[in-house]
Design brief:
The chain is α/β, with parallel strands linked by helices.
Length: 263
C-alpha cells in the first residue's frame, strides 16, 4: 500500500477512527501495529503523514493521528516507493479514457489499470458493437464496486489523481463532453490501419495541451463510421499500433502507456 484514502475528515485534533472494512484492511490485511506510519490521502486530495496510535480489537476500531513531519524510515507500512515520493512528480496533463463498454469483468480490470496509470476520467461509451446486457450491468448496482476498485487501486499505486467513472453515454455525447475542453488532444486506438496517423507526429502537437483523451474499443472494436465521426467531430487522431491483435483490456493499458511514455 502506497497510501490510505480517507472517506471522512479527521477531527479538530487530527484523529481519525476507522472501523469495518477499513479496520480489516489496515489491521488484518496489512497487519499494521501501533507506531506504524502511513501516507494518508485526505478528502480534499492533500497528502499527510500519519501514525497508527491505537488498535482496539474488541471494538474493531483503529485510530490514526495526523502528524506534521514523519520519518518514513521507521516502522513504515508502505511498500516500496511512498505516495509522498510519487507526488513529487509534477502532473501537467490530465488524461481521459473513453472506453467502449466491454463485459463487466473486463471493464473492472480496465478501471483498475487506468486508475493505477493516473487516468482522471473514464467515460464508458455505448457504441454500435456494445451489448445491451453489459450496459445494464454497468448502470445497475456496480457503482459501489467500481468505487471500491478505484480506491484500492489508488491505495496500491499511490496515485494522487482522483479517478472517476462517468455515466455511460453515446459516441456523440462523448464527443460533446470532450469538445467542452480547450488545449486538448485526442487519440483513437484503431485495429485498422487505413486511417492511421503517425503517433509521434501527432504527439508533437501535445506540447501545450492540458488534456489528452484516449479512445479504446470493446470486444467488437469500433465501427468505421464511429471512427470517422470521432475524427471529424471530436478532432481525434487515429492511431494503429503495428502489433498483435490485442484484447480490449490489453489495448487500453498498452495505449495509455505508449502515449504517456511518448508525451
Amino acid at each position: 500500500m502506497r497510501q490510505f484514502i480517507l472517506d471522512k475528515n479527521p477531527d479538530k485534533s487530527g484523529l481519525v477512527v476507522l472501523e469495518a472494512k477499513d479496520y480489516k484492511y489496515l489491521h488484518q490485511v496489512l497487519r499494521s501495529k501501533t507506531g506504524d506510519m502511513i501516507n494518508l490521502r485526505l478528502t480534499d486530495g492533500s497528502l499527510k503523514n500519519a501514525t497508527v496510535v491505537k488498535i482496539d480489537e474488541a471494538s474493531r476500531k483503529i485510530t490514526i493521528q495526523i502528524c506534521a513531519d514523519t520519518d518514513f524510515s521507521k516502522k513504515n507500512i508502505n511498500r516500496g516507493v511512498t505516495a509522498s515520493e510519487i507526488q513529487k512528480n509534477n502532473i501537467c496533463i490530465e488524461y481521459w479514457l473513453f472506453q467502449f463498454i466491454p463485459k463487466m469483468q473486463k471493464f473492472e480490470q480496465i478501471v483498475r489499470q487506468a486508475t493505477e496509470c493516473g487516468i482522471r476520467k473514464i467515460i464508458p461509451i455505448i457504441g454500435e458493437y456494445t451489448e445491451k446486457n453489459n450496459v445494464q450491468a454497468l448502470e445497475g448496482s456496480k457503482k459501489e464496486r467500481i468505487d471500491r476498485i478505484i480506491k484500492e487501486a489508488r491505495q496500491q499505486s499511490g496515485s494522487p489523481v482522483e479517478t472517476v467513472v462517468e455515466k455511460a453515454c453515446s459516441v456523440s455525447e462523448a464527443v460533446e463532453l470532450w469538445n467542452k475542453n480547450e488545449e486538448k488532444q485526442g487519440f483513437v486506438l484503431s485495429e485498422r490501419d487505413d486511417l492511421s496517423e503517425n503517433l509521434h507526429e501527432a504527439l508533437a502537437e501535445c506540447r501545450d495541451v492540458k488534456k489528452i483523451g484516449i479512445v479504446v474499443g470493446n470486444e467488437g472494436g469500433i465501427s468505421k463510421e464511429e471512427v470517422e465521426f470521432l475524427k471529424e467531430k471530436g478532432f481525434f487522431h487515429i492511431v494503429h499500433f503495428s502489433v498483435n491483435i490485442l484484447r480490449c483490456e490489453t489495448a487500453a493499458l498498452y495505449g495509455i502507456a505508449a502515449i504517456q511514455t511518448a508525451v
